Amino acid sequence: MRKPAPIPRFEPVFLFYSPDAPLNLTMLIPLLDPNIQPLERAAAALRAGKLVAFPTETVYGLGADAFNPLALAQVFAVKQRPHFDPLIVHVGERDWLVKLCRDIPPIAERLMDRFWPGPLTLVLPKLPAVPDLATSGLASVAVRMPSHPVALELIRLAGCPVAAPSANPFGRLSPTRAEHVQAAFSEGIEYIVDGGPCEVGVESTVLSLTGEIPFLLRAGGVSLEALEAVMGPVQKAGSALVPEAPGQLAHHYMPRTPMELVPMGNPPPIPVGRCGYLAFRTKPSDAGFAQVEVLSPSGNLTEAAAELFSALHRLDRAGLERVYAEAVPPQGLGLAIMDRLQKASHG
Length: 347
Hints:
This protein is 25% helix and 19% strand. The chain is of the alpha/beta class. Helix 1 (38-47) crosses helix 5 (149-158). The protein starts with 12 loop residues before the first strand and ends with a helix.
């Protein structure tokens, strides 16, 4: 079985909540202290049933031991996440799938050869040992191997698969920086691992392989075109009342500021009130917006995806009455961006 590439060097920063400090106050563990092994400390917390927020190449995840039902229950409680929304289980090695999956079809092996480690989640038939809480009672489990070196090392040191939804309150903007996690939670997390900004910036692509026909359950960091180059045509699933994977609900990824999606190149001519604008590549000619964020001046969809949630976080903190978000071309990573914008829109 093919092994992932060697893990490059990294310098994680750890923040942790002090039980004796006021809410929102964090303390920094020095990186250069020879008596401190930060990743070992976080891995030990996962093994002990605690929650650890950590970076992946997509977004920051809120991790728990995938085989510990009490820890999984804490994930749902801290995020205020409904129990019908299943979690993604992250593995450190492909060999670990035998602990999770009842069947791994040949097409799954081909996809893993091409896209793992990376932003592709596969939904496969699960083994009875996987807690129902991780899968919301479904007969399948969503699994992926992240490519972020900090995430991989943390999971391998923990020695267990790690269930990790995005590290944000349920339905709100996903975190792509450690400070987004820090601002979202005041308690319940043992450690926040700061691995810098997320490279991909949107969640993983989720592909179901539980039936005869593969289904794209969520657009994400691996484009539909890239998938179909490996496996041929893929059916697309829509929003679901009872989701088979995260991100399938009709409303998700929402900022607290009301947001409206507008056609590409067609901003409101006269914004009413204090409004913001999320532009794809060029600022609108009208100067009436209180704040404007541009995803990619060059029109690069990969750059736009990486910047998406950080830009939305900045707009959400700007004290605006409404945000208008410009549509992007719905191909490549644009499909994932449009999925997030449509589900985040209030109007």
